[in-house]
Write a structure and sequence with these properties.
11 helices, 30% strand, 10-stranded mixed beta sheet, 8-stranded mixed beta sheet, 2 domains, FAD/NAD(P)-binding domain, disordered N terminus, alpha+beta, globular, D-Amino Acid Oxidase, Chain A, domain 2
């Protein structure tokens, strides 16, 4: 793990230069909270904090005319999330869940994890019945989620959406100030960094990170399958070929997330999707039959890494989502971890009392403490599994397979694992 502190304009430097800011009252916007970053986590935070009675400014990146490769009418989005019970409860409370296109949401009723591609590999099955719930998670497309969030934002009270790029950030005893490139100024009691893994807000606060590159790329694409998936998510941990997950989509369709070593990823990306489907058919043929690329054929890829932020808060600043933590996608819970941040932030701000403002140091410390255990647990679990299954050593492989088979026979422990992985409410149902 590398201790990496990127060079940036520090908040301290901004304070020293604060007198140089030319602020006209005509271009100053004030709110209780300013959120930098308008991805799904930032949008949910804006809606939730506004619902809690706070005024919110949501700052998004400048609008671009170009669309994403899979922004094709009717096409299935290659970016999907396995949203757990915590995420669903949050979205339901914001009236967003029911605004999703339900015909494009698939429940995960069971998850079959295998310790390799061969028949002798150990395996463990997590199922909704054992968890005493109706589903372990729900597969939701990025576009479906964001369209519902955008619709909710149009009617949200106390939310102002601004598009632009922050140029300078300063904090003082009264609050945080952002100056944008176009000269606009955003003032707030609390600044929330929801601006992703390369967070500008985090850099301005000089919050260091621990960084580990996995030397893998996630390859994502969608396929038609020959046999019904019965709402089962499949995952194979293989040492040489990485981690392969096939997640159920509505109908006879699945979404692929293949965390492949870089050399293999280059090979896979050089092949056609039909050739990739043949590879997957060999792996999943017994359960799903033959695979065919979903039309139109779309494939995307992105590098994988682990990012541990040294702090979740700074004076007048709180980090959420990928700005606060990035984990391996093998568990599919990066988005859920971000939504957990939002739930915790709303809670501490709602309970802060009338004598503390949103950026109060004591309130922010409570937020950081409330998230420490869950974030650490998910980081350790995902990083540990990646390391464990990344070693192709005969004796270790036997121990791994035996461990998976043993765990599959321990229902109490399995329920506890499901409670952590799919949301703590699972344990209570």
């Amino acid at each position: 793990m590398n201790d990496f502190r990127p060079p940036s304009k520090s908040v301290g430097a901004g304070l020293a230069a604060q007198s140089t800011l030319s602020i006209s009252s005509r271009n100053v916007s004030r709110s209780d909270i300013c959120i930098v970053g308008n991805g799904a986590v930032g949008k949910v935070a804006a809606l939730g904090l506004a619902q809690a009675g706070l005024s919110v400014t949501l700052l998004g990146a400048p609008l671009k005319g170009a669309s994403r490769p899979d922004d094709v009418s009717g096409a299935w989005d290659t970016r999907v999330y396995a949203l757990n019970h915590v995420a669903r409860s949050l979205l339901s409370g914001l009236k967003v869940w029911d605004a999703l296109d339900a015909s494009r949401v698939a429940p995960v009723e069971s998850m079959l994890v295998k310790g390799g591609a061969d028949a002798a590999a150990g395996k463990i099955n997590f199922d909704a019945f054992s968890a005493r719930t109706n589903a372990l998670a729900w597969i939701v497309e990025d576009r479906n989620l964001n369209q519902a969030l955008d619709a909710a934002l149009k009617f949200a009270h106390n939310v102002r959406v601004v598009y632009g790029r922050a140029q300078q950030m300063t904090v003082d005893a009264d609050g945080a100030t952002l100056q944008l490139e176009d000269g606009a100024v955003l003032k707030s009691a609390l600044l929330v960094g929801a601006d992703g893994a390369q967070s500008w807000v985090r850099n301005q606060c000089e919050i260091g990170i621990d960084y580990r590159a996995y030397h893998q790329r996630a390859i994502v694409a969608n396929f038609e399958i020959e046999r019904p998936h019965h709402d089962v998510a499949h995952q194979w941990f293989t040492a040489e070929e990485g981690i392969v997950a096939l997640l159920p989509l509505p109908g006879k369709r699945v979404s692929l997330v293949w965390s492949a070593p870089e050399a293999l990823a280059a090979t896979l990306l050089g092949e056609s999707l039909t050739e990739l489907a043949v590879r997957l058919s060999v792996l999943a043929g017994e359960q799903l039959g033959q695979l065919q690329p979903l039309q139109p054929e779309i494939v995307q890829n992105f590098p994988l890494s682990l990012i541990r932020s040294h702090a979740l808060v700074a004076p007048r600043v709180a980090l959420i989502g990928d700005a606060a933590h990035v984990i391996h996608p093998l568990a599919g819970h990066g988005m859920n971890l971000g939504f957990g941040d939002v739930v915790a932030l709303i809670k501490v701000l709602s309970e802060r009392g009338p004598h503390r403002d949103c950026g109060d140091a004591t309130v922010l410390a409570r937020y950081a403490r409330s998230r420490k255990e869950e974030i650490l647990l998910m980081q350790v679990a995902t990083d540990g599994l990646e390391r464990l299954f990344g070693l192709d050593i005969g004796p270790l492989r036997l121990v791994r397979n035996a461990g998976l088979n043993l765990l599959d026979k321990l229902p109490v422990l399995k329920r506890r694992l499901m409670g952590h992985a799919f949301g703590r409410t699972v344990e209570k149902n």
